[in-house]
Amino acid sequence: MPAPVLPAESPASISGAQMQPVIVFQDVSISFEGNTVLDGISFSLERGETKALLGVAGSGKSTILKLAMGLVKPARGQIWVLGQEVSAMKEEDLFELRRKIGMVFQESALFDSLTVRDNVAYRLIEEGVPEEKLQKRVEEALRFVELEHTLNMLPSELSGGMRRRVAIARAIVDQPEIVLYDSPTGGLDPVTSTTIIELIVKQRDVYHNSSLLVSHRLQDAFTMATHYFDRGQNRMVPLNGAPVDTRTSFLVLRDGKVIFDGSAHQLASSRDEYIREYIS
Amino acid sequence: MELISPTDWTKNLVLAIQEWTYLAARSIGNVFRQPRYVADTLQQADLIGVGSLPIVVLTGFFTGGVLALNAARTLEQYGSLSLTGQLVSISMVRELGPTLAGLMVAGRNASGMASELGSMKVTEQIDAMRALGTDPSKKLVTPRVVATIIMLFFLTIICDFFGLTGGFAVSALGLHLDAHQYWSNAYQSLEFGDVIIGLVKPLLFGFLVATIGCYYGLTSRGGTQGVGRATTQAVVAASIMILAVNYFSSQLLLYLLK
Predict the structure, then answer these.
(1) Model-level pTM?
(2) Cα gap A177→A182, rounded to integer Å
(3) pLDDT in tens, A180-216
(4) Which residue among B35, B127, B133 sits closest to A71, beta carbon to beta carbon?
(5) B18 touches chain A (CB under 8 A)
């Protein structure tokens, strides 16, 4: 992989009054059947920031997303999302909060008995959005992922890449404040992976949501840090010195602990042996 | 096969009962909470009720027939062949109708619920539903529980009727009993308590079938193999619970209606 052109650091742009954290993990630990998956991890995600979670398989990346969503509870520690402590909330109270968060699952997790239209519209149907408005928003979301022609198809009739794109459309249909991506390019060919990453960059640069992105593909994360979505050209283009802040940071996990949390520059210049080996 | 210590086995059993109780309680509590998924409940009622109709009709008919056939051999020895209708009627309405309809619905629907919800669970569709702000116990469990309770109640009545019809077919065609005698005997022998017992049981069985099917589905893990295991366990557990609850509810109801 060619060395990525990294964006210039702009500390002034990543601080300020509007940079309130939307997700905060404080000393969070969780175990499954006696195996410690996360061991006292702490980090925060600022408003408008995209954080790529990196690590080998089984390092707990997907678990972080499920913890943030309140789908699993930590054994220890506190998790704050949009100002609410999800680690202390009851399941019934979490549904309201989850409506402000979009999540793209590893294997898409589309409802296989519903059409693409009903999958994307699911949240809107539940909220009782009027039919006309609902149809418009579903078409907008599907146009965003360039799949408006699949409206009446079933998930089983779509390719893996198309299913991921529908999952993205479902996650962003009502423009949530936070979007969580769980290995959105996992198992896809390089061309389709780039299409998915382009959509995520487009989502980031057009709607300015905060997001956590789990990936085991380092090149995906670097592409996000080194590219921005050009609305004029309607495609993702490299920064190449453009004065654009991609607001993308990196968090690397190892053996259930955070061993790196910082910018692409800091990651590329890290002297940690494991990180050097990981990014080489 | 992995060996499990008695302590762990007991702990797992207690945990399973606790989780099932929680799910069952929530499924009933959801009836009184918004949102209510009426369309899903009607769809489930169609799947469970209309879908189970043929097997319940056939089961009732042939059970009533074989009951008449066997009863006649014994009653004939005492010169009481005319009581065949009474025996078929009480047996079907009080015990066999609810139990057989329950077992048939358990075999067909508890397995269906466990496999459907199990597949959703292992493909993360349940998590996706939670992530989209929908409570799976409201959207998936309560409609199935309500639909099963209501439809099993009516299926039991249909099973009872076709059991009596099966008994009548054997009595009239095989034993040459008078039709009027059979039906009047069958009708007059039924007391209020028999009918109440026969109609309360399907409510209990419907609740058990749906909650057990949903519980095993929602707790399945381990891919397609896990879904298969959950399906089998759901049918076995629901069938055993129907037979056990049938005995205890008979005892209790006979005592209360004495």
Answers:
(1) 0.87
(2) 17
(3) 999 888 878 888 888 889 989 988 888 888 999 998 8
(4) B127
(5) no
Q: How, if at all, do strands A248-254 and A235-238 pair? A: unpaired
Cα distance from N-terminal residue to C-terminal residue, chain A: 9
What is the distance, to the nearest Å, from the Cα of residue B175 to the centroid of all Cα atoms in its chain? Answer: 32
Distance (Å) from the alpha carbon of A144 to chain B's nearest alpha carbon: 20
Can you tell me the distance from the alpha carbon of A77 to that of A41, in angstroms, rounded to the nearest whole number? 9
pLDDT tens digits, one per residue of B46-69: 999 999 999 999 999 999 999 999
Length of chain B: 258
- B91-120 residues touching A, CB cutoff 8 A: 120
Is B134 at the interface with chain A, CB within 8 A? yes
CA distances in angstroms from B128 to A94, A114, A230, A274, listed in the order given: 14, 13, 31, 34
Order across the sheet with A257-263: list the strands: A101-104, A178-182, A210-215, A50-54, A248-254, A257-263
Instruction: Return left, alpha or beta for A70; rule: phi > 0 is left, psi -120 to 50 is alpha, else beta.
Output: left
Q: What is the pLDDT of residues B86-128, one digit of tens each?
A: 999 999 999 999 999 999 999 999 999 999 999 999 999 999 9
Q: Which of B252, B32, B233 is nearest to B146 (CA)?
A: B32
Task: Please report where in the chains the tokens 């006649």 appear, as a residue.
Answer: B72
B124 touching A (Cβ < 8 Å): yes
Percent of chain B beyond pLDDT 90? Answer: 78
Residue among B124, B127, B133 minimizing CB distance to A126: B133
Shortest Cα distance, chain A CAs vs residue B121, angstroms: 10
Sign for the CA dihedral angle at A204, A208, A209, A210 comes to positive
Using DSSP bridges, classify how beta strands A210-215 and A178-182 pair: parallel, antiparallel or unpaired: parallel
* Residue A14, pLDDT above cutoff 70: no
Residue A163's alpha-carbon distances to A108, A254, B134, in angstroms, are 6, 30, 21
Nearest beta carbon to residue A109 from set B124, B133, B134? B124
For residue B127, how far is the Cα from the chain centroid? 29
Identity at B16, one-letter amino acid code: A
How high is the ipTM of this complex? 0.85
Which one-letter DSSP state was computed for residue A250?
A: E
User: In this predicted model, which residue has the larger pLDDT, A189 or A280?
Assistant: A189
What confidence category does residue A18 fall into, taking pLDDT thresholds of 50, 70 and 90? low
Question: For residue B131, which residues of chain A lie inside 8 Å, CB to CB?
Answer: 69, 71, 98, 101, 103, 105
Q: Of B55, B103, B108, B48, which is closest to residue B240 (Cα–Cα)? A: B103
The answer to whether the Cβ–Cβ distance between A109 and B135 falls below 8 Å is no
Cβ of residue B125 closer than 8 Å to a chain A Cβ:
yes
